[in-house]
Automatic annotation (TrEMBL):
Keywords: Bacterial flagellum, Cell membrane, Cell projection, Cilium, Flagellum, Membrane, Transmembrane, Transmembrane helix. Belongs to the FliO/MopB family. This is Flagellar protein. It comes from Pseudoxanthomonas japonensis. Coiled coil: none annotated.
Length: 130
């Protein structure tokens, strides 16, 4: 009888290896997952824009602005800032910020110089060289 059971086990069909393992998602499942992740990112970005104070101070302030700045060293600057209607001269260094002076009259901010058109400058330069 022992030979009969051995013959029966040999003759039995072999089971596939990994037949019980879960199948991997197809391209459709991967696309659905990608769309869900992108939607989540866009939804969170929209939510951060709508929540007050969520910008963590990144938004420009209407009450505080830099009027002028001058670099006086590798990590040192002198700045004129406007706080409300008042302008302050401050020193900024690696060690901290120091109020140097309160300006009695506000500085007049000169308009930024307009840069000439690059195409015009190039054409002018090429005419001079030829």
């Amino acid at each position: 009888m022992h030979a009969f059971t051995l013959l029966a086990t040999v003759a039995a069909p072999a089971q596939k290896i990994g037949q019980h393992a879960p199948s991997t998602p197809g391209i459709g499942g991967a696309l659905v997952g990608l769309i869900l992740v992108l939607g989540l990112i866009l939804g969170l970005a929209w939510l951060l824009k709508r929540l007050p104070g969520a910008g963590l101070g990144i938004r420009p302030s209407e009450q505080l602005r830099v009027v002028s700045m001058l670099s006086v060293g590798a990590k040192e600057r002198v700045m004129v800032i406007e706080v409300g209607k008042e302008q302050l001269l401050i020193g900024v260094s690696a060690g901290g910020i120091t109020a140097l002076h309160t300006l009695p009259e506000p500085l007049v901010v000169a308009p930024a110089p307009t840069m000439p058109n690059f195409a015009e400058l190039l054409a002018k330069r090429l005419r001079k060289e030829s």
